[in-house]
Design goal:
Strand order of the largest sheet of chain A: 1-2-3-4
Shape of chain A: globular
Radius of gyration of chain B: 23 Å
Helix content of chain A: 10-25%
Strand content of chain A: 35-45%
Shape of chain B: globular
Structural class of chain B: alpha+beta
Radius of gyration of chain A: 14 Å
Distance between the termini of chain A: 16 Å
Largest sheet of chain B: 9 strands, antiparallel
Largest interface: A-B, 18 and 20 residues
Oligomer: heterodimer
Number of strands of chain B: 21
Largest sheet of chain A: 4 strands, antiparallel
Number of helices of chain B: 15
Number of helices of chain A: 2
């Protein structure tokens, strides 16, 4: 994949607390756009499309509690139900 | 694959054409006929490898474009893992169209009717109230229908619906060698500039394929004024020197090449020195590089309906130097006597930004919906389709003349020493390329199983002459 396949647009925002810091920015591809969430400290990032973001909106915090059962990311817990390809 | 049987009249027409083609005759009727059109959709477009998109049109995961095989819509998408998928754009629930935008970016597609949702691999993953509505549904059985085979060459993505089709390389046959000499000489590769232009014509798709298989003859007359104003920097009659190539399997090309280097004129299709410097002789064979170097203009058609053109052109001959217009065009059937033309302009990935703008402007001005060349062509093509459904065409079984190059003293010589695959003829006063296109078309139209390969074969008389010379 060429580097230029994703181009950041607009202002990046950062949201943090004592436990985590993430950067969030909008990126455009040739044919559309996504939201990039970057967890710099852990070295993870994901590009979410509008349908995926919409799906986040109807989750409960319990859903996220389940995602956080591997709270350092999949690299830190081999038994965690991470689903990274 | 389940093919509808041919009706008696269509079978008779094809059968008659198979015999007539040996004498250079083509039945006018095939250019506008409901039953021929329906048979083409199944037998040609339902089986041949057809062009879908260039990979540079979908560079990022989730990027997709909506494209067509025959008249059927397909989503051409790069999935999250980077694999290009070609998915029939119909929901497996009620058949509603899932993607309705011509392009976009999505990790998942959700049908607008009931909300069935698919990953961009095509896998069915869910639907509203899934547990209530579908306690027993096996999602693995209800993914979007994928093309039987997908492959690419130089970033040009092709697909076929027929699992019995040969691999793309075998399908392209000798054409691959020529695609390499045109598209591999710059190692940065190709990129589409902007969006494809599209327009509808009341003509048959085969008229475009026929023209780009090597109808250089029409440039002397239909495009005469283009030469007169200097839109193409090569004298029209001198431009007829060069070669017609039948590359096998119905794929054809035509190269304008000067008799000798002393004749001057453009080399490398008129690419400027700065671009020519980026061409890498070691990327292809010396024979391929030599043809590239000597080429002033190249046109061709990959069976059935993907044509290409490389030519130095300008729309303002007095003020703007010619630049190399590099275009591919697809003639999509849209009904009997109806075509939707799709036109892309290409550039090398490492070409300077300023060159891209020039190439795009020259392309738009010459070979696009409003292009000065393209407008010339649409008129006769549309009248071909009108004539094809005329009473005379039916009642008199109107036959059209594709005989140039046949006969005792042919207008073009068979070139036994041609360095590339297929068979070559020189000069370009010759319609063997179009006859090869229609012969392959007949293979697809008449055969109930996947047509056997059809390598290009030298003319019988020429074969005999060569045999005598070698005896």
């Amino acid at each position: 994949m060429p580097e230029s396949a994703h181009r950041p647009v607009g202002e990046e925002i950062q949201i943090g607390n004592e436990f985590a810091v993430v950067r969030v920015r909008k990126v455009v591809t040739r044919n559309g756009e996504r939201l990039e969430i970057i967890a710099s400290r852990l070295g993870y990032s994901i590009l979410l499309d509008p349908l995926e973001l919409e799906a986040l909106s109807w989750q409960t915090h319990d859903s996220f509690s389940r995602l956080l059962s591997s709270s350092g990311g999949p690299d830190h817990d081999e038994d965690a139900p991470g689903d990274r390809e | 694959m389940r093919l509808s049987p041919l009706d008696h009249e269509t079978a008779q027409c094809l059968n008659g054409m198979a015999a007539g083609l040996e004498e250079g005759l083509v039945a006018a009727r095939i250019f506008n006929d409901e039953r021929i059109h329906r048979a083409e959709l199944e037998r040609v477009f339902g089986r041949a490898w057809t062009f879908m998109a260039h990979e540079s049109e979908i560079p990022a995961p989730g990027d997709y474009v909506l494209r067509y095989i025959g008249t059927d819509p397909f989503i051409v998408v790069r999935d999250e893992g980077g694999t290009v998928r070609v998915l029939f754009d119909a929901c497996r629930h009620r058949g509603a169209q899932v993607c309705r935008a011509e392009r976009g970016n999505a990790s998942h597609f959700r049908c607008s009717y009931h909300g069935w949702t698919y990953k961009n691999t095509g896998e069915m993953i869910g639907a509203p109230s899934f547990r209530d509505a579908y306690p027993n549904l096996d999602r693995s059985r209800w993914g979007l229908i994928a093309a039987a085979k997908v492959d690419q060459v130089h970033g040009f993505i092709f697909a076929t619906l027929d699992p019995d089709a040969p691999d793309l390389d075998d399908y392209l046959g000798g054409m691959r060698w020529y695609l390499d000499l045109m598209f591999a000489i710059n190692r940065s590769g190709l990129e589409v500039v902007g969006e494809p232009q599209r327009w509808n014509m009341r003509s048959d798709w085969k008229s475009g394929a026929d023209n780009f298989s090597g109808d250089d003859y029409h440039t002397l007359f239909l495009h005469k004024s283009m030469g007169e104003i200097g839109a193409i920097p090569i004298d029209a009659r001198a431009n007829m020197t060069g070669y017609h190539i039948q590359a096998g399997n119905g794929h054809c090309l035509s190269f304008s090449i000067a008799e000798s280097a002393e004749d001057g004129g453009p080399t490398f299709w008129g690419f400027p020195a700065g671009i020519v410097e980026t061409f890498d002789a070691s990327a292809v064979s010396p024979k391929q590089f030599d043809i590239a170097r000597r080429s002033r203009v190249a046109v061709g058609n990959i069976f059935p309906n993907l044509s290409f053109l490389l030519s130095p052109l300008t729309v303002k001959p007095r003020t703007v130097e010619p630049v190399t217009v590099f275009t591919i065009r697809q003639w999509q059937p849209r009904g009997p006597g109806r075509t939707e033309a799709w036109v892309w302009f290409l550039t090398w990935k490492d070409a300077p930004q300023a060159d891209r703008a020039k190439v795009y402007q020259a392309g738009i001005g010459t070979f696009s919906a409003g292009g000065i060349f393209e407008q010339d062509d649409a008129e006769p093509w549309q009248s071909i389709a009108r004539g094809a459904r005329s009473t005379v065409a039916r009642t008199h079984d109107l036959q059209l003349n594709y005989q140039m190059g046949l006969g005792a003293s042919p207008s073009a010589r068979f070139e036994p020493e041609w360095p590339g695959p297929g068979v070559a003829f020189r000069p370009r006063y010759e319609e063997g390329v179009q006859r090869a296109l229609y012969r392959r078309w007949l293979d697809y139209m008449e055969s109930e199983v996947y047509p056997a390969p059809r390598p290009a074969s030298p003319p019988l008389a020429a074969e005999a002459r060569t045999a005598r010379a070698h005896a």
